[in-house]
Structures are given as C-alpha cells and as structure tokens.
Predict the structure.
Amino acid sequence: MNAQARGRIGDTSSEARKAQYDVYRGMSEADKLRLVFETYRTGRRLAMTGIRMRHPGASDDEVRRLWARQHLGGELFDRAYGVLSCE
C-alpha cells in the first residue's frame, strides 16, 4: 500500500499517526510483543462476547470451540477438532 492510500485509511490525522509511530519506535521489542499479545487477547474476548450473545445457552467449552471454528475456518477446525454439536 502506498503512502497516499495509507493516508486515506481511517480518521487518524497524519500528525497523530506520526506520533503513534514514534511511540512504537521507542518501545522495546518485548513491549511491542506484549502489546501484540494484549491486542490479540482483547480481540478474542470481544469475539467470544459476541458468540455468547448469539449462543446464550452455550457452555464455556462450546463458546471456545465456536470461537476456534470462527478463527480457524470451518474446514481446518473440522479436521482438527471434529464437527461441532452446538451449531
């Protein structure tokens, strides 16, 4: 993606984006990795909350399996875990 296209994505000003990149550049590798994992966990929690809303009677294990199916895709999930019974 070229610089012009990046500038049109979202509503972040170029000054704010530069400030954000400066913060990232100042972070240690360990801090960057920690941020990646925290962001991933937050996304997973949000996705699982949505699954719970769509499947209010699902057990915790069923919610985890539904998330894994959504995350991996149906074909890979079925090969790895078998067919879900709560769908």
Remarks:
- Residues 3-81 form one domain.
- The radius of gyration is 19 Å.
- The CA atoms of residues 76 and 82 lie 9 Å apart.
- The chain has a mean pLDDT of 88.
